[in-house]
Specification:
about 250 residues; seven-stranded parallel beta sheet; 6 helices; about 30% helix; RsmE_PUA-like; transferase; methyltransferase
């Protein structure tokens, strides 16, 4: 298994580094790391280094030695952004977690017209904080060193503006009265950016579809079955990663 990942404010250049605070506590008291084990330290923005545990002190101090040179993972291409309509309950965190583990680069919360959940005031700030914390933890768990960016919530108008900047823009939509193409066979760019819109459980409204179409985003389908909003983004991200060669 690859070495566990821990997040630091700034990736150390060596020769030793003390990991403390919440990350140190997780390493010492939860992971129970011992001298001689490998670890990865990252800022979550692509910079990272490897080291070896020298000592575990108390409950929250891990001394890391033999630090290697600092590496920087390049920005992936094409960059994949998923505009995620707000799901009910904790299914939003589930969507963020699985998309992060799969390899998405950015997630944009979207207050779609048919969303039951609405982020307003303190509730919205709390929900956004949860999404960002989920992305951070899922990024560590999946051994990523470049975590996905969780953007500020967007309105339909803002999403449409985002779609105009993409090299490929798509809306996941399945409706007998509204023809859609299979995402599995459409032509995709090999560089630039891909933006994918995932609607709420009630679907994307006709007005939203029209706004997105004017922004250059066509309707696409994944397959014969209809996925929940909390899983559609993950399935689509996996498909795109495979088709663009990022999973090669």
């Amino acid at each position: 298994m690859t070495a566990p990942v821990f997040v630091v404010d700034e990736v150390p250049a060596g020769p030793e580094f003390v990991l403390d605070g919440p990350e140190g506590r997780h390493a010492v008291s939860v992971k129970r790391l011992r001298p001689g084990e490998d670890v990865v330290l990252t800022d979550g923005r692509g910079r990272w280094t490897e080291g070896v545990v020298k000592a575990a002190e108390g409950k929250d101090r891990l001394v890391v030695a033999e630090l290697h040179e600092v590496h920087e993972e390049p920005e992936p291409t094409p960059r994949i952004t998923v505009v995620q309509a707000l799901p009910k309950g904790d299914r939003g965190e589930l969507a963020v977690e699985t998309m992060t583990e799969t390899g998405v680069d950015e997630i944009v919360p979207w207050a779609a017209a048919r969303c039951i959940t609405q982020w307003k005031g303190d509730r919205g700030l709390k929900a956004l904080t949860k999404w960002r914390a989920t992305a951070r933890e899922a990024g560590k768990q999946s051994r990523r060193v470049r975590f996905p960016h969780i953007a500020e919530p967007m309105t339909t108008k803002q999403v449409a503006a985002l779609l105009t900047t993409a090299d490929f823009a798509a809306v996941l939509h399945e409706d007998r009265s509204h023809p859609s193409e299979p995402l599995a066979t459409t032509e995709l760019p090999t560089s630039g950016s891909i933006v994918l819109v995932v609607g709420p459980e009630g679907g994307v409204s006709p007005e939203e579809l029209e706004a997105f179409a004017q922004a250059g985003a066509k309707a696409y389908r994944l397959g014969r079955s209809v996925l929940r909003t909390s899983t559609a983004g993950t399935a689509a991200t996996a498909l795109l990663l495979g088709r663009t060669g990022r999973w090669s």
